[in-house]
Structures are given as structure tokens and as C-alpha cells.
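Protein folds are increasingly written down as C-alpha cells. With that in mind, we are printing a sequence and the C-alpha cells encoding its fold.
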Amino acid sequence: MESLTVLKFSSEDCGTCHRMSNYDARVAEELGLEFVSVLLQDTHTYRRYRKVLLAQYPNKEGMGWPTYLVVSNPESDFVIHGEVKGGMPKGDFRERILATLPQA
């Protein structure tokens, strides 16, 4: 199976984003996924993954804080497999990420 990446789009001044960062990367890692935190204030990283975000949200309408996109090939011909938006407990986050993964 191709490797999948969880792209987390968030902001430094988002309290929910900060709370989720206590476990989101660890959950992704436990599930065998790459994890990339894309802070809107980090212009270098944001520019690198902006095309993925805009493919899902052309005018950023309907985004949650944070927004997680589960993607294959985020650097090139990416495919978005699913998304998870907003804050939630760790167990719910794990279940929602698992639900986005392509079935083997």
C-alpha cells in the first residue's frame, strides 16, 4: 500500500489546534501514517501544501480548525482520501482518521 500522509492545517492562535497537537501526530504515527503540521503562519510549509488545501477548499469555506487531510503523494499528483475537521477526544480522532483510510 502506498504511504499516506496526514496534513494538519492549523493556526498558531487556535486553542483547539493546540489541544489536538497533544496527541494528533502520535495517533497518526501509531496508525503508520506520515504527519505534517502546516501552520498558516509558516509560509514555507504552507506554500508547499497549499495546492492540496485548495483542492479540497477552493476558497477555504467550510474548513474546520484544525483541518486534517489524509493524502497520498502530497508532494506531486496527490489524492485526498478523506478529512477530519475540528477538535475531539483522542479516541474519536483515531476512529475518524481510520475511517478515511482506503480499505486494503
